[in-house]
Amino acid sequence: MVAQNIFFGIMAAIMIWAALRVVTTKNVVHAALWLVIVLAGVAGQFLLLGAEFVGVTQILVYIGAVVVLFLFGIMLTRASMGEDENVNLPNRIVPATVGVLLFGLMAFATIDYWRDAELPKDGSPTTVEAVSDSIFSDFIVPFEATSVLLLAALIGAIVVARKE
Amino acid sequence: MNVLADLAYWQETIIKVLIGLAAVLLPAGTIVYLYLFKMMSFMQSRLGPMEAGPFGSMQPLAEVGKWIQKEDIFPTKADKRVFAAAPFVVLMSTFLLVIILPGGPDATFVDLNVGIYFGLAVSSVSVIGILMAGWSSANKYSLLGGIRAAGQLIAYELPMILAVVGVVIQAGTMNMQGIVFAQAEGEIFGWGGIGNPYIITQFLGFVIFMIAIQAELTQPPFDMPIAESELISGYLTEYSGIRFLLFFIGEFATSGVFSAIAATLFLGGWYVPGIDPHNDIFNVIGPLILFGKMMLVAFFIYWFRFTYPRFREDQLQRLAWKVLIPLSLVNIVATGVLKVVL
C-alpha cells in the first residue's frame, strides 16, 4: 500500500497546482487545458482506489466530452490567443467563500461517512459486474431518478434549440 | 506459460513497453508502405516508390529521415507550449489504446476488466490534442480544421461506442480476452465448428463500427477537417518537421490499432478455428494471426479511403446523428432482447 500512498501524494500535488492554474491563468483556453490535468488526476485517483469503471468513465465523460465541449464553445466564440484581462472577475470574495464552504461540506460528509472504511487489502479492482449489480439493486431508485432527470434535460435542450 | 511471470515488475514493464512500441510502429509502417504507397499507386495505375530498397520498401524509413532533418517551425504568433505539446497528446492516446489488445491466452499487456471501455475512453483523448493543435497555430484555417475535427469526432464517437455495446451484451463482458474466448467457444445454432465470430451475429454493429472508425481517423471520405481544397491542411497546416511526423505516425498507427480492435471484437482476435483456444501455441502464433486479421480490416479502411469522394460537412453530420446512432440503438435493443430470449 506504500506505493499507492506515494502516488496519491504526487497526483494530489499536481492536481492542486493545476486547479490553482485553472482559476489564475488569464487565457480561457489555457484554463480549460489545465482543467484536463485536474480531471485526469481525478481519474488516476479512482484507479488507485481500484475503481476501474468509475476512473475510465471519468476519462470518457469529462476529458473526452465535457472539456472538448468547453474548448469547442470557447473556440467558436472567443478564441483570443494572448492574455485576456476580462477573464478574472473583480469580485473574488464570493466565489472563494462558496468554494471553501463547498470544500468543507464535502470533506465533512466524506470523512463522516467513510470514517472507518478500509480498502480491500489485496488491491484487486472492483469488477464491472459488481458495479452494475449494486446500481440495479441497492441504488436502483437514485439511478432511475438520475436517468429521468437527464432525459428531462435532453428534451429541454431540444425544445430550447428548436425556436419555431 | 507466462514467461514474464518470473521477472521483476520493472523488467516486465520494460519488456512490455518495448513490445508496445513495436505493436504501434510496425503495423503503422506496414500500412503506410503496403496501402498508402503501393495499393493507392496500383489503383491509380502507377508504380509508387521503387527506388529505396527492393520495390521501394525502405521508403517509409526514408520519409522518417526526411522529416526528422527538416526545421521544426513555430509560427510567430503561435502559443508555443500548447503548439509543441499537441502532437504528443494525440500520440499518447494511440499508445494507451494498444495496451488493451490481447495477442494470445497469456500474451496481454494488461488484462483490464473494463477492457474495451478503457480503449474507447482513451481514444477520445486525441480530440483534445487536435483542438490544441488547431487553436495554438494562430491560423484561421487551422482553427476551422480543429473545430471541424472536434465536431466530427464527437459525432462519430457515439455510434462507435453504441456499436461496441452490442458485442459487449453478446459476450457478457467488456474484457477483451473474455470477448475473444466468447467468440472462440461460441456456437452458431448449436454448431461450434468455427466458434461464433461476432461479424456474423453483429454484422450491423460491425458496419457501424467500421464507418465510425473511418470517421474517427479522419480518413477520406470523412476528411473534412483537413480538406485541402478548402482549409489547406486543417489543423496540420502550421506543423512541419518532426511534429508533423508525430501527427502522421499517430494517424496511421491509430488506424492500425483500431483495425486490430475491430478484428478482436468482430473477427475473433488471435483465435483461429480448429485449435483449442487454451492451447499455449496461441501465445506464439496469436500475435501473427491478429496481425493478419488487422491487415485485412485495414485493407477495407484504405480501400474506402482511396475510392470515395469527400462528404460535405452537413452530409457528414447527418449520417452520424440521423442514420448511424438510431441504427446502433436498434441494434442494442435487438441484441438485448435476443440475448434474454435465446
Overview of the molecule:
- The complex is a heterodimer of chains A (164) and B (342).
- Chain A has one domain: NADH-ubiquinone/plastoquinone oxidoreductase chain 6, subunit NuoJ (Four Helix Bundle (Hemerythrin (Met), subunit A), Up-down Bundle).
- Chain A has six helices and no strands.
- Chain A is mainly α.
- Chain B is mainly α.
- Chain B is built from 13 helices and no strands.
- In chain B, helix 9 runs antiparallel to helix 11.
- The two termini of chain B are 36 Å apart.
- The model of chain B has no long low-confidence stretch (mean pLDDT 84).
- Classes of the chains: A mainly alpha (164), B mainly alpha (342).
- The interface between A and B is medium-sized, with 25 and 30 residues.
Short summary of the structure?
By secondary structure, chain A is mostly helical. Chain A is built from 6 helices and no strands. Chain A is globular, with a radius of gyration of 19 Å.
- Which structural class do the helices and strands of chain B define? mainly alpha
Tell me which oligomeric state these chains represent: heterodimer
* Secondary-structure element order of chain A, N to C: HHHHHH
Order of helices and strands of chain B: HHHHHHHHHHHHH
Determine Rg of chain B (CA atoms, Å).
21 Å
| Strand content range of chain B | under 5%
In total, the number of domains of chain A comes to: 1
Ends distance of chain B: 36 Å
User: What is the count of distinct domains of chain B?
Assistant: 1
